[in-house]
Structures are given as C-alpha cells and as structure tokens.
C-alpha cells in the first residue's frame, strides 16, 4: 500500500486518510494509490469507505506541477485518471463517506461531489472550484459532476463564478451534507454514519446507487470521452 494513504479497517468502516505531508495533491501517484485502496476495499466485506485528509487539508486538487510543466499528454492522462476515479466513486458498490477536515480545492472538491455522504468540520478553510479563477476552462467531466451533485442554484455560482465557500455555506451549495464542530466530532459522525450504512443490504445498496445515477453516469462516460479529444 502506498505511503500517500493510511488504510485502516474497523468493524464498520475502511478509512483512507490522505496524507502526503503537504496539500494532498491529486498527482498521478495519489490517484493510483486511491484506486489501489479502493480495489482492496472492494474485495472486503460490505462496509463504508471513509475518505479523509489530515487536519486542515483534504486536497489542493490536481498537481499543479504536472498541470503547468508536465506537457499536454501528461495533463490529459492525469485528468482522465482523475475523472475515471470520481466516476468509479459514484458507482462504487460500497458507501463512500467523505470526512472533510480542511481545504478541498478543484479536484479536491470533486472528491466531495463524488461521495455518498459528506461531513465537514467547521473552520476557516476553503471549498472551491477555482478552475476559472486560475485560467482553466472547466472540462466536460467537471461540468457533469457539478450538474449531477450541486444544488441547482449553485451550479453557476460554484463553477462559472468560482465562488469560495466556507464549510457551512458549502452545505447549501451541495458540497457537504452537514458540518460538525471539531475534528473529534467529525471522526465520530463519520463512524456513526458508517455504522448505519453497514446495516444496509449490500446488493440493494449497490444496485440502487447505479440505478439512481444512471443518467449521471452516462453523462460522465460521454464527458470523459469528449475530454480526451480536447
Ligand atoms: C478539474 C480540476 C482542476 C484542478 O484540480 S487544478 C488544481 C487547482 N488547485 C489549485 O489551484 C491549488 C490552490 N491552492 C490553494 O488554494 C492553497 O495552496 C491551499 C488552500 C490548498 C493550501 O493553502 P495553504 O495551507 O496556505 O498552503 P500554501 O502555502 O498555499 O501551499 C503550500 C504548498 O503547496 C503548494 N501547492 C498548493 N496546491 C498545490 C497543487 N494543487 N499542486 C501543487 N502544489 C500545490 C504551494 O505551491 C506551496 O508550495 P511551496 O511550499 O513550495 O511554496
């Protein structure tokens, strides 16, 4: 298992804690590590998977080093892998709970939009799709993820206007489902939701998730192919 992610398993949950010691960039290596951890979680008995970061940081998004200096092919490969990862999360046969303990920027915020239940700790940190602010035209997969998961009135505000949300405002926008006061409460709340999720019927959960999201998943499949032509 990669040293970018700490993988721990309890009776009701598998926790993936992202910690690269910095801002948890979604580099090709981090995306591969998350996929490897999901492979392992998929083979485990039915229980929730909790995505979390280190205190103050979920993820600063795609690796700007690759974005700025990697060359077109490397950027396209990283974005394609990232889009496939969030598409995988949306169809993953086990529940994915995001326990957001800090900044979630761009692709970091998309991890929230691809999770089944999202809890954020209250605090002075940013949840933002900053692509337009930093000169990136949003890719199709990003647009479709926003269309599928953001509250409708925030679709334009969060994506086209690149507004920055604090965790409480992020609940209204649709990045989070609820906030809690501190890190301890965050981990407790995630564990309690995992315990509830573990009582669900595994087959019914997996089938309902992809059935309910069929249109969204079809749109993402189209978007991922379209982005490869850009
Ligand atoms: C479709 C999706 C597209 C994308 O995902 S594109 C990527 C979009 N991401 C960004 O534009 C990153 C924005 N970064 C930030 O807003 C802030 O950073 C944070 C809120 C994440 C953290 O703020 P703070 O805690 O004050 O740290 P700090 O001093 O800004 O950054 C610490 C070091 O981390 C580097 N860094 C931050 N984000 C990234 C990144 N995404 N890729 C590569 N490096 C990053 C910085 O440059 C700096 O580096 P040094 O210590 O050498 O000065």
Automatic annotation (TrEMBL):
Keywords: Lyase. One of its GO terms (biological process) is fatty acid beta-oxidation. InterPro entries: ClpP/crotonase-like_dom_sf, Enoyl-CoA_hydra/iso. Its EC number is 4.2.1.17. It comes from the Bacteria. CDD domains: crotonase-like. The keyword Coiled coil does not apply. GO terms for molecular function: enoyl-CoA hydratase activity. Belongs to the enoyl-CoA hydratase/isomerase family. PANTHER family: ENOYL-COA HYDRATASE, MITOCHONDRIAL, ENOYL-COA HYDRATASE-RELATED. This is Enoyl-CoA hydratase. It comes from Pseudoteredinibacter isoporae.
């Amino acid at each position: 298992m990669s040293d970018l992610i700490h993988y721990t398993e309890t009776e009701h949950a598998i926790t993936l804690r992202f910690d690269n010691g910095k801002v948890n960039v979604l580099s090709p290596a981090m995306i591969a590590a998350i996929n490897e951890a999901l492979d392992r979680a998929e083979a485990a008995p039915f229980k929730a998977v909790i995505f979390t970061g280190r205190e103050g940081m979920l993820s600063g998004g795609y690796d700007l080093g690759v974005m700025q200096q990697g060359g077109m092919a490397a950027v396209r490969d990283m974005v394609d892998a990232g889009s496939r990862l969030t598409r995988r999360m949306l169809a993953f046969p086990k529940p994915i709970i995001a326990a957001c303990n800090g900044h979630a920027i761009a692709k970091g915020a998309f991890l929230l939009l691809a999770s089944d239940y999202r809890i954020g700790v209250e605090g002075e940190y940013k949840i933002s799709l900053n692509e337009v602010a930093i000169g990136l035209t949003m890719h199709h997969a990003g647009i479709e993820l926003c269309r599928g998961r953001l509250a409708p009135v925030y679709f334009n505000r969060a994506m086209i206007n690149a507004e920055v949300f604090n965790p409480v405002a992020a609940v209204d926008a649709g990045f989070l489902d609820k906030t809690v006061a501190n890190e301890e409460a965050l981990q407790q709340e995630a564990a309690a939701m995992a315990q509830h999720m573990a009582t669900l019927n595994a087959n019914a959960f997996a089938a309902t998730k992809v059935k309910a999201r069929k249109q969204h998943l079809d749109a993402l499949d189209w978007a991922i192919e379209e982005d490869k032509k850009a």
